[in-house]
Every structure is written in structure tokens, then in C-alpha cells.
Amino acid sequence: MKDNMLFQPHNDGHGNGGGQGRNTQGNYAQPHNNAAANGQGQALNPQTIIGLYTKEWITNEPTPSMIDFAEAAGKYMAKNKMTYSQIRNVYGEIKRIQMGGYDNKKASFYLLRPKVAYAVARMRGNGLEFFQQVFTKAYPDVSNAKSFNNFCALMEAILAYHKANNDQE
User: Fold this and answer.
1) Strand locations in the chain, DSSP E?
2) How many independent structural domains does the chain possess?
3) Which of these ranges, 103-112, 117-126, 141-150, has the smallest mean pLDDT?
4) Is residue 97 in some structural domain?
């Protein structure tokens, strides 16, 4: 996130923009001066980050605010010592479902939730618990192939920012 702003100015393609970003309810909000969002100062707490989640990223389409969310989430997980290998099985399954097509692999998608719960139970005390919170927040919003692809985009963006901020790997 640039310029110490949690909500970045953007045009959403529908004539909206004008120097303000959308908040979690999809309404335009004043930009927040948040040094934590770009790695300066204190980090955002997990509940604050989760509170930024917007269902429309999954049900409608990804937006610039989704990328801001993914950056904050990825940084938080990296700072809390979550390694990529800890979520490799879940992420691998997400990609397998995507390659096979959501409509053909719905049962596999439904089984992701217990896989995430199992992974968290094995590795308590790190960023993986936060990953489960993000996953659990977005998971119910998947209802068709389009929303599954948007879900995949969110997970990929979070993992990309995690990898970019993780000095362990």
C-alpha cells in the first residue's frame, strides 16, 4: 500500500473514484493514514484486517481494495512466521480444483474447510490461524465458477504478498 493510505484512490470502472477508496461496505470512505499498512509503525491486528474483507470481491469481481487487503494479510502472515510449506497442501488443492473446473470439483472445494482446520490444528501459534480466518470469511461466498475464480485470485494475491514479505524462504 502506497502513500500510507489503507484505501487507495481508484476508479472502479463504473465512474466512481475521485480520490477516495471504498470501505468494507463498498461505500467511499476518507483515506486512512495507516503507516502499518505499508510496513511502517505497528502492524494491523488480525481483526482489523479481517474487518476489511468485502464479500463483493468474491461474488462480483476483485477490486483494488482486494489487493490492499491481500497485501495487509500477506504481510501479517509473514510477520507471524507462517511458512509457505504450511499451506502448500491447501493451496495445491485450490489450484487442482481450479484446473479441473469448479463445477466438476465442488466436493473437493467443500472438503477444503476441514483440510484448513486440520492444518491449523497441527501448527498452532503462527500465521496459519489467521489464514484460516481469512479462508473461513471468504469460503461461504463461493457459489459458482466465477466466484470460485475470484476466491482463487484472492488467495493467490495473499500468498504472493506473503512470499514477498517472508524472509524465511
Assistant:
1) 21-22, 28-29
2) 1
3) 117-126
4) yes
Q: Residue type at 37? A: A
Buried b (16+ CB within 10 A) or exposed e, 97-115: bbeeebeebeeebeebeee
User: Using one digit for the tens of pLDDT, what is the confidence trace for 4-33?
Assistant: 334 333 444 434 443 334 444 443 333 333
Q: Kindly calculate the radius of gyration of the chain based on its CA atoms and give it in whole angstroms.
A: 16
Residue indicated by cell numbers 466466484: 147
Identify whether 60 is part of a domain: yes
Mean pLDDT in residue range 67-78 = 93
Domain assignment of residue 5, yes or no: no
State the burial class of residue 48 (Cβ atoms within 10 Å of its Cβ: 0-12, 13-18, 19+).
middle
Residue 24 covered by a domain: no
Q: Are 56 and 147 in contact (CB under 8 A)?
A: no
21 forms beta bridges with: 29
Residue-number span of the structural domain to which 85 is assigned: 43-165
Q: Distance between CA atoms of 110 and 115, rounded to whole angstroms?
A: 10
Quote the cell numbers at residue 27.
Answer: 461505500
Mean pLDDT of 35-57: 73
